[in-house]
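cron nightly-structures :: item 1 of 1
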Amino acid sequence: MVLNAGDVMRKDVNTVSGDVSVLDASRIMESNGTGFLIVESEGKPAGIITEWDVLVKVTARQADPSKVPVKEIMTRNFIYVTPNTPTNKLVSVMKENRIRRLPVMDGGRVLGVITSRDIIRIFEDYMDNVAEVSSRYGII
């Protein structure tokens, strides 16, 4: 059975307006235990902001996070996949583009997101299944 993005994505995706300050966005990320937010404009995804953006584009430049809107530091043309993208393709996309979060979109809407932690969880589940089947047949 092949798993697709729609099977493994997290559906709880937090969004903010592009006018929200980086400070407020950071507080939202912290309170939700995530390292990213989807930035919306007129109800549609316009970009993504990650903790790396905050670190490199604000903190390292000693900018005041309460005065920098997220639309100034977000990644506008972010990479995404569709719900029917196979998991092996997800891994390739994340690796090739050196990203840890991959929005899942359909029809211009963000349906969910897959993170590197999700990929690790999928791999762990797979290895547990292999070990169980192997031990059942005396292979391990």
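cron nightly-structures :: done
Residues 5-136 form a domain with the CBS-domain fold (CATH 3.10.580.10).
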